[in-house]
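DATA SHEET
Item: assembly model
Revision: 1
Owner: S.N.
Input lines:
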Amino acid sequence: MSDGARRRGEGALARREKRLAYSLLLPTFALVLGVILLPLLANFWISFKPVTLADLRPPQLIVKEQLRGKLAAEGDTARIEYRFRNSSIKYPLGEVSFTDTLPDGIKITGLDEACRIDETTAKLTCELGDLDAKSRGRIRIEIEALTGDPPGKADFRASAPAATFSAYNVMTSFDFTLGNFQKIFSAAEFWDVLKVSVYYTVFGTAGALLFGLFAAQIMQKAFFGRPVIRGLMLFPYVAPVIAVAFSWVVLFDPFSGAVNAMLQQMDVASGPINFFGQRMIEVSFFGVAFNLPMALTMVILFEVWRYFPLSFLFILARMQSIPSDIYEAAEIDGATPMQQFRFLSLPHIAGILAVLFLLRFIWTFNKFDDIFLLTGGNAGTRTLTVNVYEQAFAISNLGAGAAVAVVIFVLLLVFSIIFIRFSPKDAG
Amino acid sequence: MKFWMHGIFGAVLAGGLWGGIWQIVLTMALIVSTGAGLSLQTGPAVLAGASAGLFAILFRSKSTMLRHICGVLAMGVLIWGFSLGAPYDPRAILPAWQSWLTLVIAAGAGWFSIAAAIGNMSPARQARYAAEKFYLRLVWGLGLIMFVLIVAIPFYVMVMTSLKSQQSLLGNPLDFSIDPGVGGAVLFRSYIELFTKYDFGTLLINSTIVSVMTVLITLLFAVPGAYAVARLRFPGRKWLSGSVLLIYLIPAIILVIPLYAVFSQLGLRNSLLGLCIVYPATTIPVALYMLRGYFAGLPSELDDAGLMDGLSRLQIITRIAMPLSTPAIASVALYVFMIAWNEFLFAFMFLDDVKLFTLSRGIVSLNSSEVPRQHLMAGAVIATTPVLVIFLWFERFLVSGLTAGSVKG
């Protein structure tokens, strides 16, 4: 066998393997493309469009048919009435027409000039031209019964009028605007929102990491009941966010919450504190009074409480994989516990700490549920993600919401580039 | 002079801290278990603890038993004495035995905490090694108590509130006691009402359907994909295994608006099917990543042997790779189940019809002023219980899965 033939043979095998690999990955790729990547692009598209929530329902022509009068015997006259309206309150409809099939046994005596009838098929066609937004009208057709057993109301309803029209769809049109971005950047609150996002992300991430590190140091030591307590420590993280968020809300409720009652009982606070509803609170700490952003602090504490278990788990796993003999050697050399931590443990867990910091930083930045459930984004806790919801669904301006989402995406891109640049190779 | 390096300073500090901590913890425990309005007296307990610490470091008898007995007694007497005979209940609201019992617990817990922190330290100036050991022991104990309390309290409040009546909740928010004597029907009235009036049975079924479907679809897509990335050679493989987790960094809130728009027009929005499409898309990348790592760890000779015996690649996946990686598949399945069960954002955005609500969506609608708090908390317990049961049951699996896949949160 020549070299060339062998290479071709391998080529065929490799091609088959390649084809198989692609076909195995195809379903995953299709789903991720459809549900994640295309929506991501669509979000950019929407952010440049003047779309509101109401535009999601495309304009419709609504036609209702009614028989006025009664046909009982031959020669009876009645009227068919078609009422139509443009369902959109914003956009006109163009080239509107509708068709309807009339039952047998009647004769048309008066036809609206917009309509014509095809005698052989008894098909009625009405051309209505253009309809302005919200406009409505009616068309009347006089009829006369031809037989002694004329059609009743049900026979008229048997065929529903079919409408055709050309509607303007803001989603698929090529009208673009920068208005959404202008609107969000010029809003006075936008920079506050950005600031809150940064505070929340930085303090939430750092707090969760530090608490996780502390918890890992504590659980490193073997003691009675350690497995139980380790399981318990992961509860905040595995429980549904909805359950733990509302538990906090109940616990810190200004009127029926236990924390407020306890603080007043113990004479720490004079009146009820609305932990999740108060923007600022004056705190006096050893005689020094300063203002604390109350609700923001609470949502940051919640974030720390809920996500320290993740850092704890990773750091503990990493620490338990450090060989114990280096600690024994250090012990013999007389290294103190803090020195052992500083010079042995810390270098070993530095990698995982960095990865955790970056991952948690991005995920905290992306976090929506927690703040939304705790405060609804009120009382100075509105982050960018909550602002997306607020713009798109509370104010019904989808375009502005998408524009905020674009801002989030751009910031994430920056974080991701940093993440890739600094990601250590031995991560996790 | 570094006074903090002296054993005697450390002992007083540890004593004061532990005395104060236990006083706070036990007074709170007494308040919440009886509902009585007690005031906190930290000062006397701190003094008592500090004195007990002094005693512990000075009286280092050979007999540990004797030392502990004396210590507990001393601690009790000191707390009682410094607080002028009424450490917890100066206004005598409670029956005397409750105060005495608390005092006994305080004496025991306080003394053993102090003794454990002090260990065999001497009153003299300590070397840096011994001093650090001592301070770390102290911080270790304090930290452990803090973590247990901050984690357990919200969960306890959740369960306790769900078992209360409206009057007792508003009447005394500090009464944390659960009275099993009232009988099951009264105790579980919130749960009964949720299932009868608020149709929580349907919510449970909906959540189960969505979660199980998500698990099945995820595995159906991710197992072949992971196998391809782990075993087959194709251009773009390196790039794929690196970039699959990048998808994980895209926040759901960015996808919500376009998906909402498109699903509305396709009629998928207000349906469980819509969720069964969106959830797997968010879980497949991480499932693929976790399974890829496991498949790559299996010896590739097995695959070769299978190929020799005439198995196709698909048969290799179903007959060799999958049976060998049951633990990994189980942990991915459980983990995906938990994500789908806990998911809130898409369920909240997509579902309008009460009949289609998942638990997360249903519980949000309980958060209104018309629905009593205990119903909300009962709903929270119903949503939490399955997840925690799964978690505790398969903890070992899940912990390895969590660390392998670096769970999103």
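QC remark: The longest strand of chain A covers residues 77-86.
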